[in-house]
TrEMBL record:
The lineage of its organism: Bacteria, Bacillati, Actinomycetota, Actinomycetes, Micrococcales. It holds the Pfam family YceD. This is DUF177 domain-containing protein.
Length: 181
């Protein structure tokens, strides 16, 4: 499966100024991310990759899009949301430092920088929506009626985007205070 990430650069090697763009779809072979948010096995990663030949090696710039699966850090619900991250990495012909990536034969292995970029970009404290009120510490229920209604709605990425939009709209009007007796 690792070979899926390997990209041949034979046509642009040692030809500074040459550039090639590629779209690559990958099915995640094993889970990316260990915490509340992850890209699980079987999820699709879509990469827009630009490979540029420079004097030292191959400069790889990539935009990665996928669907993040997460548990909300406030209300503990599972949800999915669109995920996107970019990374840029130089693959040197002659790596000079231990942590530098190299061109192997006539290809580059995108897997290590891809995995690093994705894992670093996954939120440490994911929230199902920016204004998720969380759980009432006493009852364990969601804090307000609006949030309670939302538990019956699957959090589809399109709804999550709408929630973002609403949160921006209502900025300044204040977050409703939790009920207290
Ligand atoms: Zn939540």
């Amino acid at each position: 499966m690792a070979r899926l990430y390997e990209e041949s650069v034979r046509d642009i090697m040692n030809r500074p100024g040459e550039m090639r763009e590629r779209e690559i779809d990958i099915v995640v072979p094993d889970r990316f991310g260990e915490a509340l948010a992850s890209i699980p096995e079987g999820e699709k990663l879509s990469l827009d990759v630009r490979l540029e030949s420079v004097h030292e090696g191959i400069l790889v710039s990539a935009t990665v899009r996928s669907t993040m699966h997460a548990e909300c850090g406030r209300c503990l619900r599972d949800f999915t949301a669109p995920f996107e991250v970019e990374f840029q990495e130089l693959f040197a012909y002659t790596p000079t430092e231990a942590d530098e990536y190299g061109v192997h034969g006539d290809h580059v292995d995108l897997e290590p920088p891809l995995r690093d970029a994705v894992v670093l970009a996954l939120p440490f404290q994911p929230v199902c929506r920016p204004d998720c009120p969380g759980l009432d510490p006493e009852s364990g229920e969601l804090r307000d009626a609006e949030a309670a209604m939302a538990t019956n709605v699957d959090v589809d990425p399109r709804w999550a985007a709408l929630a973002d939009f609403k949160a921006v709209e209502s900025l300044g009007s204040g977050v409703p205070e939790s009920e207290s007796n």
